[in-house]
Amino acid sequence: VQLQASGGGLVQAGGSLRLSCAASGSIFSIYAMGWYRQAPGKERELVAHISNGGSTNYADSVKGRFTISRDNAKNTAYLEMNSLRPEDTAVYYCHLDRYSGGYRRYWGQGTLVTVSS
User: Fold this and answer.
1) Which own/partner contact pairs does 68-75 have at CB distance under 8 Å and 24+ positions apart?
2) Cβ 108 vs Cβ 25: under 8 Å
3) Distance of alpha carbon 58 from alpha carbon 25, whole angstroms
4) What are the pLDDT digits (tens) for 18-70?
5) Which of 95, 92, 80 is CA-nearest to residue 32?
6) Which residue from 4, 71, 91, 105 lies 20 to 30 Å from 24 (Cα-Cα)?
7) What is the pLDDT of residue 54?
């Protein structure tokens, strides 16, 4: 399984960005996807997660500002980020949890989001 993340960049505080994570390979039909982030000097933290059935959960710090969605036909997850704050600056990593054929988590390469004040 390969994950290709895109959409990061530099944005001013209050602005918006949309991250994409496209999955390819032996995904099978049952999987969840999500995003973590890691800011300089901090541990990686969960940002948002979407289950195979479409249930979502978010970190408290992004609730009401970020929205995760998925397009099963494209095997792609999206993270719509609005009202961005400087503290959202981090490298964002997407992941895919595959459940068919035994559980395994896959990670994409990070994409840098920088929010200027």
Assistant:
1) 68/33, 68/34, 68/35, 70/33, 74/22, 75/22, 75/23, 75/24, 75/27
2) no
3) 27
4) 999 999 988 777 899 999 999 999 999 999 999 999 999 999 999 999 999 99
5) 95
6) 91
7) 94
